[in-house]
Amino acid sequence: MSAYTLFASRLLFPLHERLKRHDTVAILRELERSQWLDTAGLQALQLERLRRLLAQAAARVPYYRELFAQAKLTAADFRSLDDLALLPVTDKALIRSQGSAWQAEGAVDAAWQQTSGSSGEPLRFLLGRHRVSFDIAAKWRAMRWWDVDIGDPEAVLWGSAIEHSAQDRLREWRDRLLRSRLIPTHDLTPARMDAILADLRRSRPRMLFGYPSALSRLAFHARARGLRMDELGIRVAFCTSEVLRPEWREAIGQVFGCGVANEYGARDAGFLARECPQGGLHLTAEEVIVEVVDEAGHRLPAGEEGDIVVTNLAGPEFPFIRYRTGDRGRLSATPCACGRGLPLLAEIGGRANDGLIASDGAWVHGSAFNHLLRDLAGLEAYRIVQERRDQVRLLLRMQGGVPAGVADALIAAFRARLGGDVAVAVDAVDEIPPMPNGKFRHIVCLVDTAQPAPPHAREEQPA
């Protein structure tokens, strides 16, 4: 650790957090201890914090006060984590419909935030100071897994307007002091990518952070240019906000000569998980309880894919209890080789509403198509677009174009899942741009998108 990193991580950043009245440093100390608890110890900690959250919600949040009264429930009735099933699964639509009834009475030290709206209408919600501190501490802990720390040079490759608009002068000076640089990625032309790669060679960051679609695009570009980026001393690339595709992981790690760590979280649900050097995608169990459920909200066992539901334990200001994130995933029952007791996500499968409409009206989840494409040699990016039920367009960015045999096989596989009368076009393209919010979507279905997925939706298990 350099002298400046030591100064930043032990003096400068703790002072910054104290001035903001965040208890981040104290939380970090606790998290670095609790990560080594066994499963029983972590679950006991979760249950204690769950009961405290539910007692506060029942007393101070009008929606939950009425719910607990009608169901004749108290926080003491929750004797195990399985008792979360006594409460309904919630979502953005329910929260919006409740208005101020979702806010804790007497909430202080909380500020309004909103989601980016990538899955539809943005959600406005209150974020308490303790919740913010917990998220920062959890990220800080995970950074240290990779032998990087606050104050190590960092390049943040980002495309969200929320972050860009927040770059006022005070925050810009803070980032300079902490050696964190924001690099916009909304327009990755060849010339722009050349400039970013040259900048990285000059600044020699110890860590990268950003959308995997943007980081991989830079990696593919550097590979095509024959640029050596694996000698800069980059320790890890943290990838967030999008599904980290295998081809993207391989390109980022190989070109930049670094580890690749998947991160999973959301503005509303919180900091949920980050990958360790041994490959385990560890849940932040001290702050969140993560369930995987079916369409009816029933909990699924480890290994089965379903909807990810989160209970954030950090505070009652604006509770997220059994909150459907809109993502799909699987839990793992296998412990990580790193020895930490934190539970694992086995896989994040993408957005729950990513899918296509078959010719008979059935909704086919995107996993059926994502797994068709994951092993294509030379694949750099893809997007599936359906504007009509009988027409699907598959855009592929591949090294050397799309071989005729590959295109024919994909057309046949898509028709087998959607119907023989569906016209499938496979087009080789040079560029697949991100969506207006800066994030990358693999599946864009414009057919009946206002309607929920039918109960007879088809879904294929990963091969």
Walk me through this protein's architecture.
This protein has 463 residues and is of the alpha/beta class. It folds into two domains: 352 residues, ANL, N-terminal domain (Rossmann fold, 3-Layer(aba) Sandwich), CATH 3.40.50; 91 residues, 2-Layer Sandwich (GMP Synthetase, Chain A, domain 3), CATH 3.30.300.30. The chain is 34% helix and 24% strand. The chain contains 13 helices and 19 strands. The strands form four sheets. The chain has an eleven-stranded mixed β-sheet with strand order 4-3-5-6-7-8-9-13-12-11-10, with helices on both faces. Strands 18-17-16-19 form a four-stranded mixed β-sheet. A two-stranded antiparallel sheet has the order 1-2. The chain is globular, with a radius of gyration of 23 Å. The C terminus is likely disordered.
Observed structural traits:
463 residues, alpha/beta, Rossmann fold, GMP Synthetase, Chain A, domain 3, 2 domains, 13 helices, globular, disordered C terminus
Question: How many domains would you count in the coordinates?
Answer: 2
Task: Please give the count of helices.
Answer: 13
Per the principal axes of the C-alpha atoms, what is the gross shape? globular
Mean pLDDT: 89
The major β-sheet equals: 11 strands, mixed
Radius of gyration: 23 Å
CATH topology of the largest domain: Rossmann fold
Which stretches of 5+ consecutive residues score pLDDT under 50? Answer: 449-463
Strand order of the largest sheet: 4-3-5-6-7-8-9-13-12-11-10
N→C terminal distance: 43 Å
